[in-house]
Design goal:
The complex is a heterodimer of chains A (223) and B (208). Chain A is mainly beta and 223 residues long. Chain A has two helices and 15 strands. Chains A and B meet through strand 2, strand 11 and helix 2 of A and helix 5 and helix 7 of B.
């Protein structure tokens, strides 16, 4: 069995605009497959990516209002993870024991953050107004935030978690947010946010620097 | 107007999409691509000696190749001249460039899907690696378009370049290519699905 618990702390799961209101998306954190979704209320939710009914990935699901409906047999779940309806048994009030496993999830600094259900610390609090900039897939996971910053030619200004921090990039006026998400066999994702006041030129420069990290963190087997 | 069509073909889907976007009345002639291999029959080779679908029959002429059919339909039947923007040479150049890119997507992402779904004998690892190389280029391009306020491949309007790239990108999961590596591509797929008169095809499970 794969572990269903994350390591302690908050993980940068993606940019806030990875999951728009009334949509669902898939994210992998270490070995854990997770469905992210927002209802029309805009609130981000992170659940184990399997329907309690037949194991279908809930990230394929359809969001209606503030419920998520599984694509396979249409079981639907309310915002807290409780089963709200089973189409094959329209008269049935679903038992309270049928629940999607919910992680903690929050938006901050232009990122979506995810933690274990029992995580006791508060989600990262990040000063200032930030806008999502870029998510890039890389083949090899950096060993540390320092190594990632070095690979980008950036200096670490302050750490937010072991996987995210504020950095200063050579040639870019503003400080930016830089984070990585280890997806084990899937490699890793790099995420960046820039200050809301940053110009379009800065946003594009940061996006291009981020995509260049693919050449820095290549799979060791790659020639 | 008649489309020689196969419902599970992404290349035929490109033509169905544009016919719907332009609201063009037409008939469809189903080709038994799998398992019948009708596209390789003597009769069909008279229509297209390459033995490929789609083929469009219009005004007594046969046009083959998905990208060529898109260009033909948009040039002839789009009064707004936005899907194939003939009045803007620089945008037209970009559209043509991404049409060629779409052909490369077919030879990689679509090949991986044919291997996984229909059991075609080919080097699937090479096909997937090729698709990932292209998807990185497309994800970079779409992300930078977004940062400049453009929602589509060639600029502020959808063009035949978006139609040509859409099917085999959206179907890539069928070939074992993970789309969650490419957030900008995923946002573009969702915008595409929300276009007026858009219709799904089997295997594309994205709902607005």
């Amino acid at each position: 069995m794969k572990p269903s618990e994350l390591e302690a702390g908050w993980f940068p799961a993606g940019l806030q605009n990875y999951v728009l209101p009334k949509t669902a998306g898939r994210v992998v954190i270490a070995d854990n497959d997770i469905a992210l979704w927002r209802g029309e209320d805009g609130q981000i939710r992170a659940w184990e990516n399997r329907c309690p009914h037949r194991g279908m990935r809930l990230s394929y699901g359809i969001v209606r209002g503030n419920t998520l409906t599984c694509l396979y047999h249409g079981w639907s779940y309310d915002g807290a993870g409780a089963c709200a309806g089973i189409p094959a048994h329209p008269e049935l009030t679903p038992p309270k024991t049928i629940r999607a496993k919910a992680y903690r999830a929050a938006d901050a600094g232009g990122f979506i953050w995810v933690a274990n259900p029992g995580e006791t610390t508060a989600p990262p609090s990040i000063d200032g107004d930030w806008v999502p900039n870029r998510s890039v897939h890389i083949d090899a996971t950096p060993v540390s935030l320092n190594e990632l910053a070095e690979g980008m030619g950036a200096g670490l200004v302050s750490k937010i978690t072991d996987h995210a921090g504020i950095v200063r990039v050579h040639g870019v006026e503003e400080e930016i947010l830089l984070a990585f998400l280890d997806m084990k066999k899937h490699g890793a994702m790099i995420h960046t946010s820039v200050p809301a006041s940053a110009s379009e030129d800065v946003a594009i420069a940061v996006s291009k620097l981020t995509s260049r990290l693919r050449q820095v963190f290549k799979a060791s087997s790659a020639a | 107007m008649k489309l020689y069509d196969y419902v599970l073909s992404g290349n035929c889907y490109k033509i169905r999409l544009l016919l719907d976007f332009l609201e063009l009345s037409h008939e469809k002639r189903a080709v038994d691509f799998f398992p019948g291999r009708e596209h390789k029959s003597d009769e069909f080779l008279q229509i297209n000696p390459l033995g490929q679908i789609p083929v469009l029959e219009d005004d007594g002429a046969y046009i083959r190749d998905a990208q060529a059919i898109l260009v033909y339909l948009a040039s002839r039947y789009d009064p707004t001249a936005t899907w194939w923007p003939v009045n803007d040479p620089s945008e037209l150049g970009r559209v043509a460039q991404w049409l060629a890119f779409a052909d490369s997507i077919t030879s990689t992402a679509s090949a991986a899907r044919l291997h996984d779904v229909l059991g075609y004998d080919l080097d699937v690892a090479q096909a997937r690696a090729g698709a990932h190389r292209l998807f990185r280029i497309l994800d970079d391009h779409l992300a930078n378009q977004e940062l400049q306020g453009f929602n589509w491949i060639a600029g502020s309007n959808p063009t035949v370049a978006d139609i040509a790239c859409f099917p085999y990108v959206a179907l890539a999961g069928d070939g074992g290519i993970e789309l969650f590596y490419y957030p900008a591509i995923q946002r573009w797929i969702r915008r595409f699905v929300n276009l007026p008169r858009f219709k799904l095809m089997p295997g594309i499970n994205i709902f607005d």
